Amino acid sequence: MVSLKVKRLRKHSLILCILVALVCLLASAGANAQGNDLASAARNGDLTRVKALLAANADVNANLDSGITALMEASEGGHLEVVRALLDAKANVNAKGDNGATSLMLASQNGHLEVVRALMDAKADVNAKAENGGTALQLASEKDRLEVVRALLAAKADVNAKADTGVTALIFAAQFGHPEVARALLAAKADVNATENHGGTALVFASQQGYQEVVQVLIAAKADVNAKVSNGATALMLASLHGYLDIVRSLIAAKADVNAKTDNGLTALKVASEQGHQEIVQFLKSWGAADR
After folding, report:
1. Which tens digits make up the pLDDT trace of 25-52?
2. Which of 6, 190, 270, 279 could join 185 via S-S bond, C-beta 3.0 to 4.6 A?
3. Tens of pLDDT along 48-96?
4. pTM for the model
């Protein structure tokens, strides 16, 4: 009889455990659904829905599969009032997605100045780094978000922080042709001669891409016109290669070495000649470029 009672007790205990586990699973599923709903509402800028979900105890810091939170969604979309509501509900302002991106990075990249300010007021880390080492300032500089760049600099963003590739905010601004952003970064003491992992400087990238105004800004800031990348190429060689005569003139005027050679012996004259840039060829020769 005792044995039978024990068996029944064990059976009831097992049933109870299963029921508890099922309730927990349903509660978890409900919380996940609410988290997804909150992120969706934030993405769409639906303030009313966001407030309703928060009032129903939705997890303000719930993550989607990619690690994205509602605050990240609202920040990326520039939905200021939603961002404020989420911050008031204690959203983690420095939470990171699976790629290490933060709400501040997403708002900065997309040029949402007021959202950037709100996040910084809530103590967002202006120098947080993504998985690739990128920062909010680098993203804003790449995308030509001048006012965001200024706001981040005023909040003490590290102007010389490097991504894993060695690229700085200034190199991004130069590579994508943003002279006003370059000026703002230089005014904040950006290292004009910082190099990425292959030796490229802001001037090298601007010269290669044909951004004459950026080249002039960098030269005025004392950029090294004879800096070489890992294979020995200079800004003058790259401008000559791509046929940018105005940049060639600016570099020569700034005392670029007209006869500098790459590791395998190429010169600005040789690459200009091979590409058929005859006007550059004649200009280089007039400044002493040697046929050799």
Report:
1. 223 333 345 558 999 999 999 999 999 9
2. 190
3. 999 999 999 999 999 987 899 999 999 999 999 999 999 999 999 999 9
4. 0.88
- Estimate the crossing angle of helix 212-220 against helix 245-253, to 10 degrees: 10
**Where are the alpha helices (H) located in 103-187, listed in sequence order?**
103-109, 113-121, 136-142, 146-154, 169-175, 179-187
Q: Which residues contact 250 (CB under 8 A, 6 or more apart)?
A: 212, 215, 216, 219
pLDDT digit string (tens) for 208-252? 999 999 999 999 999 999 999 999 999 999 999 999 999 999 999
- Per the structure, how many domains does the chain have? 1
The DSSP 8-state label assigned to residue 133 in this structure reads S
**Other Cβ atoms closer than 10 A to 15:** 10
285 three-class SS: helix
CATH code for the domain in which residue 84 is found: 1.25.40.20
Confidence of residue 20 (pLDDT cuts 50, 70, 90): very low
The amino acid at residue 246 is D
Q: How is residue 199 annotated by DSSP?
A: S
151 Cβ partners below 8 Å, 6+ apart?
113, 116, 117, 120
* Domain extent for 16: 1-125
DSSP string for residues in 81-109: HHHHHHHHTT--TT---TT---HHHHHHH
- The per-residue b/e assignment along 126-144, b for 16 or more CB within 10 angstroms, e otherwise, is bebbbeeebbbbbbbbbbb
Task: Compute the CA torsion angle 100, 104, 110, 111 (nearest 10 deg).
Answer: -150
CA torsion sign for 259, 260, 261, 266 is negative
